[in-house]
Amino acid sequence: MTEKAYIKGSAFPPLVDGKLRLYSMRLCPYAQRTRIMLAHKKIPYETVNINLKEKPEWFLEKNPLGMVPVLEHDGKIVYESAICNEYLEDIHKQNSVTPTDPYRRARDKMLLEMNSKFTTAYYKALRGLKGEDANSLIEAVHASLVPLEKAIGERGNFYGGDKPSMLDFLLYPHYERIEGIRTGFHADFMPMDKLPKLNAWVSRMQTVPAVKETMFDAQTHIDFYKSYGSGKTDYDIGL
Amino acid sequence: MTEKAYIKGSAFPPLVDGKLRLYSMRLCPYAQRTRIMLAHKKIPYETVNINLKEKPEWFLEKNPLGMVPVLEHDGKIVYESAICNEYLEDIHKQNSVTPTDPYRRARDKMLLEMNSKFTTAYYKALRGLKGEDANSLIEAVHASLVPLEKAIGERGNFYGGDKPSMLDFLLYPHYERIEGIRTGFHADFMPMDKLPKLNAWVSRMQTVPAVKETMFDAQTHIDFYKSYGSGKTDYDIGL
């Protein structure tokens, strides 16, 4: 098994009986959601990284949508990050992070839906950073974050209150990348004066052991986004 | 309480203590998902229909996303159809429709994700029915339905096997509208020769009591879509 990304034409890495496999991409925020969950629950697994621009043929047989993360275990395939995390929570009961109250569970899912407005604005702004509309795109990111700032203010240290919950793990990865965008692209997606509580939450999340295990530093995110922007994405950055 | 849609400027209909309220729109397929769930579980509720083009100010305070369905009960607000249905399943245990097996639950959520490719293609084709690309847009709908046809073929009478499950309720509403599109707009989104099992499933769903309670006939769907296309949506059609 290699950390390097498997590419179109590469041979399928044989499955090991009984071992859980994660198809991932090292810098993908959605795959990171599931990597945090696996780390938090201390579930043993192996990683197969995928070149998402030139996907191996066998990867599309695992997930016809062609995206990571994908879990494979004993012939069972699960994809979509939130579904992967719920599945892991269901089959590995230790260190549970799902609220027991039905209304809190519903509210967390509504906040995740709100967060998808942010991720849409995030990618739109990233693509438009060199354009004339850059400022208005960045302001749209700020606006999309207001409900998240309000919610963390009401809830405490984490969206889960005293401790991180499933929602914290699902939200966190995109926010990790904002420091790199700030320093490497001179664009502030999360200004301290407008969104102080979200900024504090990101710093706090970075002290959580499961998050620390999965993090990359700001410079690696900058380098990755620059390689992506150049059209020659370096999936093996830093290896 | 009136069945007619509440519009911008209208007064807020007072809440009744202890009574569950559904904010809906009579012809909305997403609201129908939750109407089926409420009917299946025989949960008492009142309906407040909303004019989605000119929304009452108080509606946006309930759901900042401005969409139906929304549930309100004892000061609690839940929106997004799949989240509403999960919440109802959690707080009303009778007539459960959620699979108990974690892998089946994960697979159902993956199929719902696949179905969102169909709904995207569905609305794109509806908007493009008069354009030059109509045929290729309709063919994209057929292609998006292949995974759903395959899945129902493997599962039996319903996506839940012998009986309808949560997934059947979430999928059904858009398919109800296809007969109206077929006869009223001369466009077949679900040809019998290409998708025989899905066609049979729709007919079978229409014998389910909870579905029957929420259905509109093909002509009403045609009239509604025509009013929508004219720019003057008739939210009170047939009243």
UniProtKB/TrEMBL annotation, chains A, B:
<comment type="similarity">
    <text>Belongs to the GST superfamily. Omega family.</text>
</comment>
<keyword id="KW-0808">Transferase</keyword>
<feature type="domain" description="GST N-terminal">
    <location>
        <begin position="18"/>
        <end position="96"/>
    </location>
</feature>
<dbReference type="InterPro" id="IPR040079">
    <property type="entry name" value="Glutathione_S-Trfase"/>
</dbReference>
<dbReference type="InterPro" id="IPR005442">
    <property type="entry name" value="GST_omega"/>
</dbReference>
<feature type="domain" description="GST C-terminal">
    <location>
        <begin position="101"/>
        <end position="235"/>
    </location>
</feature>
<dbReference type="Pfam" id="PF13417">
    <property type="entry name" value="GST_N_3"/>
</dbReference>
<dbReference type="Pfam" id="PF13410">
    <property type="entry name" value="GST_C_2"/>
</dbReference>
<dbReference type="GO" id="GO:0045174">
    <property type="term" value="F:glutathione dehydrogenase (ascorbate) activity"/>
</dbReference>
<protein>
    <recommendedName>
        <fullName>Glutathione S-transferase omega</fullName>
        <ecNumber>1.20.4.2</ecNumber>
        <ecNumber>1.8.5.1</ecNumber>
        <ecNumber>2.5.1.18</ecNumber>
    </recommendedName>
</protein>
<dbReference type="InterPro" id="IPR004045">
    <property type="entry name" value="Glutathione_S-Trfase_N"/>
</dbReference>
<dbReference type="InterPro" id="IPR036249">
    <property type="entry name" value="Thioredoxin-like_sf"/>
</dbReference>
<dbReference type="GO" id="GO:0006749">
    <property type="term" value="P:glutathione metabolic process"/>
</dbReference>
<dbReference type="InterPro" id="IPR045073">
    <property type="entry name" value="Omega/Tau-like"/>
</dbReference>
<keyword id="KW-0560">Oxidoreductase</keyword>
<dbReference type="InterPro" id="IPR050983">
    <property type="entry name" value="GST_Omega/HSP26"/>
</dbReference>
<dbReference type="InterPro" id="IPR036282">
    <property type="entry name" value="Glutathione-S-Trfase_C_sf"/>
</dbReference>
<dbReference type="GO" id="GO:0004364">
    <property type="term" value="F:glutathione transferase activity"/>
</dbReference>
<dbReference type="GO" id="GO:0050610">
    <property type="term" value="F:methylarsonate reductase activity"/>
</dbReference>
<dbReference type="GO" id="GO:0005737">
    <property type="term" value="C:cytoplasm"/>
</dbReference>
<comment type="function">
    <text>Exhibits glutathione-dependent thiol transferase activity. Has high dehydroascorbate reductase activity and may contribute to the recycling of ascorbic acid. Participates in the biotransformation of inorganic arsenic and reduces monomethylarsonic acid (MMA).</text>
</comment>
<dbReference type="InterPro" id="IPR010987">
    <property type="entry name" value="Glutathione-S-Trfase_C-like"/>
</dbReference>
